[in-house]
Design brief:
heterodimer; A: 371 residues; 87% helix; B: mainly alpha; 8 helices; 82% helix; 0% strand
């Protein structure tokens, strides 16, 4: 093999290996970069989702319908935007946790129910305000009519009605107060009928009490219903918060798993690149040893032989048999030179022995006269 | 064209030297000895210097006088090379040949174009002495080495060659004096005799080879 062929082949081989490492490294970096970009996008998306629960809680804490409608509109706009992004991410199939996420749908259902409940709650609230006003007006009429007769028992019972009214309307926790309130209205009605006030006053008082009871019965039911709605609303909020916590936990786990997966990919790619580098190094060393051995082995052989010849031993044969053609050629050429030199030395020795005398000036001069 | 005695002597000696040169060259063709070749060349130059002198006399051209001096002095260089071929080491060691060639060119130029050539020979005796002494010295040294290394040469031949070279050399030292005394023809006559002695000596020294080894 020619040295130039060996060298060119070796460099080409090393070049191909290095090129392969380079391409593999570039593709690996690109792949890892894409994975991290996906993870980043999904993390941001999840963070947006997590923000919906506090926003929903804030929405269901609005006090008026106007405020509720305004915030609801903003919330829905934001939700639509999020859902579009969610669909896109799901389509692109960034991660399984997004593509097959039933929790997002569950969140939407709970949200809808919560919003509906809150809306009903606000509507009831407005009705109750009106009912309260009617109740207060009617109660005042009752107080004015019956307090000027000096009937202490009746006055005390009317005051109890007012107390039960406050307990029922403003303190929903007292569940029995509503029935007590109605009972007390009936008891006061009976008392009025049995009292010594004029018939006209009795009729007026009974009329007021009848209307008052109607008002209380009507709005009292709404109050009871409102209490149930509020309970449902609170349960939904709790459910939503719990769901959000679950989602957060699950997605945190999923992202951690995904991060670990990416890190594993990075580790794998690194290992492959390190192994390729070590392989390249070993190949380089092997090629280096092979080439240097091929070159230096032949040259060493020639040098040793030339060294031997320099000591006067012409019986050495320089015939380097290496895989490098040029060194073999050099060896053969040197061998030919040495053979020629050997002949020349022998001839010179022969001539010197035979013509030693002719070298002297006398003989040289004498030679000039010989014809 | 009428020739003077001196001019006849010059022509005679020149032809004699050409003849000797031819003879030695013939010997060279046989033995391929560099010494023979160099001495053949020397005698040729020695002959040419006479011919150039005659040419100068007849033409009056300075360039011929330049060649006359140059061939005379260059003969010394050729002798030195011949001696070096014999084995005289100091010639190469002191670069005598190179020095004599340079000196020859300079002295030839000086004698010809600075001093004025043939017509100013008498007026410039020191320059003439130096020029002739150069070749004279070379001839004497040559004679010495022929004496030193010519032990294997036949005695008569060796004696004639050695004496011829030495006397020819000495003669060249005295030539300026003879010229000044108007005895140029005598100088050439002696030169002819001594040259002839060398030629005869060379002839007697020449032996046949025993066959190739």
């Amino acid at each position: 093999m020619k040295l130039s062929t060996l060298m060119a082949g070796s460099f080409l081989f090393m070049g191909i290996i290095l090129l392969a490492i380079g391409i593999f490294g570039t593709l690996s970096i690109q792949e890892i970069q894409n994975k991290y970009t996906e993870l980043h996008n999904v993390s941001e998306h999840i963070e947006k989702f997590n923000q919906f629960t506090p926003k929903m809680v804030k929405l269901v804490n609005t006090k008026t319908i106007e405020e509720f409608e305004t915030q609801k509109k903003a919330f829905e706009t934001e939700e639509n935007s999020f859902m579009q992004e969610h669909s896109k991410i799901s389509e692109e199939n960034y991660f399984d946790i997004i593509a097959h996420d039933s929790q997002t749908d569950k969140f939407s259902i709970i949200s809808s129910e919560l919003i509906e409940a809150h809306k009903q709650f606000l509507n009831h609230g407005e009705v109750l305000v009106k009912g309260q006003e009617l109740e207060e007006t009617q109660y005042e009429k009752l107080v004015i009519l019956l307090s000027s007769h000096g009937n202490d028992g009746l006055e005390t019972d009317i005051a109890k009605i007012g107390l039960l009214s406050k307990q029922t309307l403003y303190n929903y926790k007292n569940k029995d107060s509503f029935s007590k309130w109605l009972d007390k209205i009936d008891s006061v009605t009976t008392e009025v009928k049995e009292s010594d006030i004029t018939q006209v006053e009795k009729d007026s008082a009974i009329e007021i009490l009848t209307e008052y009871k109607e008002i209380v019965s009507t709005y009292g039911n709404i109050v009871v219903s409102q209490k149930n709605i509020e309970k449902i609303r609170q349960d939904k909020i709790d459910e939503l918060i719990l769901l959000n916590q679950q989602v957060q936990q699950e997605r945190h786990k999923a992202i951690s798993a995904k991060t670990a997966e990416i890190e594993a990919i990075v580790s794998d790619k690194n290992n492959i690149i390190y192994n390729l580098m070590i392989f390249t190094l070993l190949i380089s060393i092997a090629l280096g040893i092979l080439i240097s051995h091929s070159i230096s082995g032949g040259i060493r052989h020639i040098t040793e032989n030339v060294e031997e010849i320099s000591k006067g031993n012409f019986n050495v044969e320089i015939d380097s048999k290496t895989s490098i053609e040029e060194i073999n050629m050099l060896g053969r050429a040197l061998d030919r030179i040495m053979k020629t030199m050997k002949l020349a030395v022998l001839e010179t020795e022969f001539r010197y022995k035979n013509t030693k005398d002719s070298i002297s000036p006398e003989n040289k001069l004498n030679e000039a006269f010989r014809v | 064209m009428e020739l003077t005695l001196a001019e006849y002597a010059i022509l005679l000696i020149s032809f004699a030297r050409i003849f000797i040169s031819g003879f030695i060259f013939w010997a060279y063709t046989k033995n391929r000895s560099k010494i023979a070749l160099y001495f053949s060349a020397f005698f040729l130059l020695f002959a040419l210097q006479g011919i150039f002198r005659i040419t100068t006399i007849f033409t009056g051209e300075l360039i011929f006088y330049f060649f006359h001096v140059l061939t005379l002095t260059l003969g010394s260089a050729v002798i030195f090379e011949a001696l070096h071929s014999i084995g005289v080491k100091w010639i190469r060691e002191y670069k005598a040949t190179e020095a004599i060639i340079l000196f020859s060119i300079l002295i030839s130029y000086y004698d010809t174009f600075v001093l004025g050539g043939l017509n100013s020979e008498l007026a410039n005796a020191p320059a003439m002495i130096i020029t002739l002494a150069t070749t004279g010295t070379a001839l004497i040294i040559s004679g010495y080495y022929f004496y030193l290394f010519g032990k294997d040469i036949p005695k008569i031949g060796r004696m004639l060659i050695v004496e011829g070279f030495i006397l020819e050399g000495i003669l060249l030292f005295f030539t300026p004096s003879l010229v000044r005394l108007g005895l140029v023809h005598l100088s050439f006559a002696f030169g002819f005799v001594f040259t002839l002695a060398i030629g005869i000596g060379w002839f007697f020294s020449t032996t046949k080879k025993q066959g190739k080894r």
